[in-house]
């Protein structure tokens, strides 16, 4: 395609959430290629999957993904699949319930290195019917708070994960731990499709959900404010704490306070 033809195709497939360079100087997130706003679809935010992915996994796997298989739940345009493959991942599979995003993923697959990458339209609840083999690493980003049953949904992803499960979700802090009702649009591209969803109230709830799914070892990557009272968190969870060996070397966990050390010393003498 010529530059003009690529631009026209990007515009036709928009709006985009993933900003990806598909040819020198041509990016899917370029404002010049934004279609006319459609209130029924909304205006997605723009993120660079390659930058976010490299930064995150560089801390955990300094030598790259080394042939690890990778699953992206609610993969959007598949940007993280291509980023994982670039970092050395082997088998990469993503799914999304919205055909809009998967059309974008297939467009990208025609223009980027895409061997061992596949993406398809599928609801999370239907994933067990696909008969997929387990993956080493699973990304569960931007989906937990769009599900009518987030615990069952997370369990589906966990059952398909051998090593590392990454949960990135919005939360709605409250005085008590739990899940808060989150009724949402069925048509906006960045919403769920069920109309009913739940916000976890914070990292404690997400950690407990992960532990119940067989991922008791966790690290909080970030927890920051978003719109209104909501916050965005990312938690990495593993079946085996050894997964975090390199990460813990870079970011030692907070040392206990002097009082806690003294208390532990006294208890140790009993």
SSE order and pairing:
Elements: H1 3-13, E1 21-23, E2 26-27, H2 49-60, E3 70-73, H3 79-86, E4 92-96, H4 99-109, E5 117-121, E6 135-141, H5 150-159, E7 161-171, E8 179-181, E9 198-200, H6 203-212, E10 217-225, E11 231-238, H7 245-250, H8 258-268
Parallel strand pairs: 3-4, 3-6, 4-5, 6-7
Antiparallel strand pairs: 1-2, 7-11, 8-9, 10-11
Helix pairs in contact: 2-3
Write a compact overview of the structure shown.
This protein is an alpha/beta fold and 270 residues long. It contains eight helices and eleven strands.
Q: Would you give an account of this structure?
A:
This protein has 270 residues and is of the alpha/beta class. The protein has a single domain, classed as Vaccinia Virus protein VP39 (Rossmann fold). The chain has eight helices and eleven strands. The strands form three sheets. It has a seven-stranded mixed β-sheet with strand order 5-4-3-6-7-11-10, with helices on both faces. The protein has a two-stranded antiparallel sheet with strand order 1-2. The chain has a two-stranded antiparallel sheet with strand order 8-9. A hairpin with a 2-residue loop joins strand 1 and strand 2 (26-27). Helix 2 (49-60) packs across helix 3 (79-86). The longest helix has 12 residues, at 49-60. The chain is globular, with a radius of gyration of 20 Å. Mean pLDDT is 92; it is low at 266-270.
Determine the oligomeric state from the structure: single chain
- The coarse overall form would be globular
Strand content: 15-25%
CATH topology type = Rossmann fold
Determine the number of helices (DSSP H or I, runs of at least 4 residues).
8
Q: So, the CATH homologous superfamily?
A: Vaccinia Virus protein VP39
Strand order of the largest sheet: 5-4-3-6-7-11-10
Query: What order do the SSEs take from the amino end to the carboxyl end, as H and E?
Result: HEEHEHEHEEHEEEHEEHH
Q: What does the largest sheet look like?
A: 7 strands, mixed
Q: Please give the share of residues in helix.
A: 25-40%
Number of strands: 11
**Would you tell me the structural class of the helices and strands?**
alpha/beta
Report the end-to-end length measured between terminal Cα atoms: 76 Å
Assigned CATH class = Alpha Beta
- Over the alpha carbons, how many angstroms does the gyration radius reach? 20 Å
**CATH-defined architecture:** 3-Layer(aba) Sandwich
């Amino acid at each position: 395609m010529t530059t003009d033809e690529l631009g026209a195709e990007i515009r036709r497939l928009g709006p985009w959430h993933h900003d990806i360079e598909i040819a020198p100087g041509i990016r899917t997130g370029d404002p010049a290629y934004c279609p006319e706003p459609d209130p029924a679809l909304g205006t997605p935010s723009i993120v660079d999957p390659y930058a976010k992915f490299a930064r995150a996994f560089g801390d955990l796997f300094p030598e790259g993904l080394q042939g690890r298989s990778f699953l992206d739940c609610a993969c959007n345009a598949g940007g993280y699949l291509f980023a994982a493959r670039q970092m050395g991942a082997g088998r990469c599979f993503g799914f999304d319930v919205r055909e809009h995003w998967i059309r974008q993923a297939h467009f990208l697959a025609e223009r980027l290195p895409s061997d061992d990458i596949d993406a398809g339209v599928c609801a999370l609840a239907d994933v067990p019917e696909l008969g997929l083999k387990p993956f080493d690493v699973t990304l569960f980003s931007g989906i937990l708070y769009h599900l009518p049953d987030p615990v069952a949904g997370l369990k589906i992803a966990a059952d398909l994960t051998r090593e590392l499960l990454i949960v990135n979700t919005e939360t709605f802090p409250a005085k008590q731990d739990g899940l808060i009702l989150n009724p949402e649009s069925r048509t906006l591209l960045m919403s769920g499709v069920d109309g009913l969803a739940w916000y976890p109230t914070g990292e404690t709830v997400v950690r407990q959900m992960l532990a119940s799914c067989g991922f008791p070892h966790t690290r909080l990557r970030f927890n920051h404010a978003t719109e209104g009272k909501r916050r965005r968190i990312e938690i990495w969870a593993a079946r085996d704490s050894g997964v975090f060996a390199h990460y813990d070397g870079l970011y030692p966990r907070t040392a206990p306070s002097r009082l806690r050390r003294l208390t532990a010393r006294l208890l140790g003498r009993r």
